[in-house]
Known about the structure:
single chain; mainly alpha; two-stranded antiparallel sheet; two-stranded antiparallel ribbon; 15 helices; globular
Amino acid sequence: MFDTIDLTVVWALIIAFAVFAYIVMDGFDLGIGILFPALRPGHERDTAMNSIAPVWDGNETWLVLGGGGLFAVFPLAYAVILPALYAPIIAMLLGLIFRGVAFEFRWRDPRHRALWDVAFTGGSVVAAFAQGITLGALLQGIKVEGRAYAGGWWDWLTPFSLLVGLGIVCGYALLGATWLVMRTEGRLQNRARTFSLGLGAATVAVIAAVSAATPFLEGKYWERWFAMPNLLLTAQVPLLVAVASILFFRALRAGAERTPFLLALGLFLLSFVGLGISIFPDVVPGRITIWEAAAPHSSQVFLLVGASVLIPIILVYTAYSYWVFRGKVDAAGYH
């Protein structure tokens, strides 16, 4: 049954889907943490926390699926990427741990709530910034000799990776702000709308800067974006980003509630498509393709059988949880 299907491409798409699902679902609740210092203690912070309380931990399921899938299906890529990016990946995991602990303890230890709020914000910022640095370091290239990482401990730390890290922080904060526009009412919603305008402008500016720099990082990037006939298709991506940006600001000023969040997600989707154009079919850009990094065909078949059962279950319970906890929220809960 699977002999006529290129399972390596199928698995690349599954992992890409898992990564994007994580960005979409965990991005806005990390964004809430990033925005936390700008929210007033008490009602505003409690309302923001309640808006993500039912779903935040389940969102990270997709991070586990993406990382586990990379390890199981593309073991060579995992063996090369992890040593190159140990520092930002460890920072990301520590940030997520601090954030998760703070989320739970700020309710159970009200005497130290200010401390837990700082930990919640710090963990969110560190996790988001580390994710951006990881992406930037991967895009700028990893030194490989034979089948092993050949670079140094600090190769990931460059102006480009820091720029991408800043972009992810701005983008997640934008998702968090537009989530609050969609889920809250009154003064908090108005303040979130103001935050969204500034963060939208910052996010679009960073997208433009990263997009302008990326083709110069690797010769293949330039070819994939600007060589004919590729240019006829790739030119549509920045055009769609411009259209989505204009619609985003118009929707915010018109008082829309759901549309700004959906258009912010659209900006992330278009950025993700641009990332795919730049690196596919490489898994380590410019060094290792998905076929070179893939596990044996029999292993891919075995894993695909399990994934074909588990992924629909994850999608169903995730959709159900969002459906149950739909609607507006305040400091007392959903209503």
